Amino acid sequence: MNSTKILDAKGLACPMPIVKTKKAMKELETGDVLEIHATDQGAKGDLTAWAKSGGHELLKSDEENEVLKFWIQKG
Question: CATH code for 5-73?
Fold first, then answer.
């Protein structure tokens, strides 16, 4: 999946993946896709809920070698 920007949030505990995601989203245009890499298992629920509440769309999530990957399109 194509992404406009990749955010490395590996090794960060809650709430830092969300804080960094919010900041990165501000730098993107509507329709751009942010790819987030995280290792905190809480990021699954947190990022899903955050995307929905912020008017963004979680396009895909995946797990590879204990790294959670999310693709969120800016709404």
Answer: 3.30.110.40
Strand partners, 6: 35
Q: What string of DSSP letters covers 22-46? A: HHHHHTSPTT-EEEEEE--TTHHHH
SS3 11: coil
Q: Where are the domains of the chain?
A: 5-73
Q: Which of 4, 10, 14, 59 is catalytic?
A: 14
Residue 14 a catalytic site member: yes
Q: For 35-50, what is each residue's pLDDT tens digit?
A: 999 999 999 999 999 9
In sequence order, what E strands does 1-75 have?
Answer: 5-9, 33-38, 57-64, 67-73
Does this model's pTM top 0.90? My answer is yes
- d(CA 8, CA 11) in angstroms, rounded, equals 9
